[in-house]
Amino acid sequence: MEIKDEQMKKILLLLLLPLLTNAQVLHKPIPDKLVVLTFDDAIVTQYTVVAPLLKKYGFGATFFVCEFTNPPFSDKSKYLSWEQIAALNKMGFEIGNHTQNHTHVNKMDSLHFASELKYIESKCAQYHIPKPVSFAYPGYDVGPKALPVLKAAGYVFARQGLNRPYDPLTDNPLLMPGLTTTADNSKDVYDILSKANHGKIVVLTMHGVPDEAHPWVNTPPGLFEQYLKFLKDNHYRVIAMRDLKQYIDVGSESPKDRKSER
C-alpha cells in the first residue's frame, strides 16, 4: 500500500510540475494572439511612416535606437534625430537600447559593452526619455558576458534572432527570439503569427519602412500596413516589449531559464 502511495505522489508531482514552473515565471496566463512589435536601428521612416500607422491602428511598439557609423548617423535623410526619438517616447512608444554604434556584443569586453549601453542611457536622460529596460542584440549576436552586464544595468528583456516564437517558460527573457521582416518573407511572418498561442508570444523585428540605409531588411510601407490590418482584423494584441512585465515575472526565473544562461 505504501508503495502505491509513493507512486501516486510521484505521479501527482509530475502533473503539478508544469503548474509550479508556470507560477515561478508568469504573473498571469499569456493570452493567445500576443505580439511584441519592435523596430531597430533608428531609421527615419520609423517616425515619418511607422509611428502614424501604429497610432492609426492603436498598437504599441519598441524602438531600439543606436547611432550607426556606416552610413553615418549624421545623415538625417536616413536616421532619426534625437528630437524625433524623444517625440516617439512622448507618443507612448518604448525606446530601447541597441548600443551606441550597433556594435556586436561578442566583439566587446564587458567594460566596452557597459559603456555602449551607458551612452544610449545618457542620451535618453538628456532628452527626458525613461532609462531603457529593453535591449536588442546588434546583428543578433550574443556573447557569454552579455547577460551579467545587462542584468547589472537593469535590463529585463533582450531580443536576438532565431525566427521562432518566444516561450516564457523555456526562454530566458534576456535571450528572447524574434523574426525579422523583409520585403519578401511575408509567408514566414504570417506563419509565425499563427503560432502566437498556447503561452507563446510572437516578437517581430522590423527596421525601416522603407529602409534606405539597410535595404536588405527593408519592409515596404504597403506590406507593413497589410500586416497591421491583419493584426487588427484578427484581434491580435500588439504591445511594446516593456509591457510584457504585466505577464512575466522577470524577477523570478524557472530552472529552465537559469539553465539557458550556462
Question: How would you describe this protein?
Answer:
This protein is α/β, with parallel strands linked by helices and 262 residues long. It has one domain (2-260): TIM Barrel (Alpha-Beta Barrel). 37% of the residues lie in helices and 14% in strands. The protein has eight helices and eight strands, in the order αβαβαβαβαββαβαβα. Strands 1, 2, 3, 4, 5, 6, 7 and 8 form an eight-stranded parallel sheet that branches. β6, α6 (186-193) and β7 form a beta-alpha-beta unit. α2 (45-57) packs parallel to α7. The chain is globular. The protein starts with a helix and ends with a helix.
Q: Characteristics of this structure?
A:
globular, 262 residues, 8 helices, alpha/beta, single chain, TIM Barrel
Question: What is this entry, summarized?
Answer:
With 262 residues, this protein is an alpha/beta fold. The protein has helices at residues 2-25, 45-57, 82-90, 110-126, 146-152, 186-193, 221-233, 255-260; strands spanning 34-40, 62-65, 94-97, 134-136, 157-162, 176-180, 202-206, 237-239.
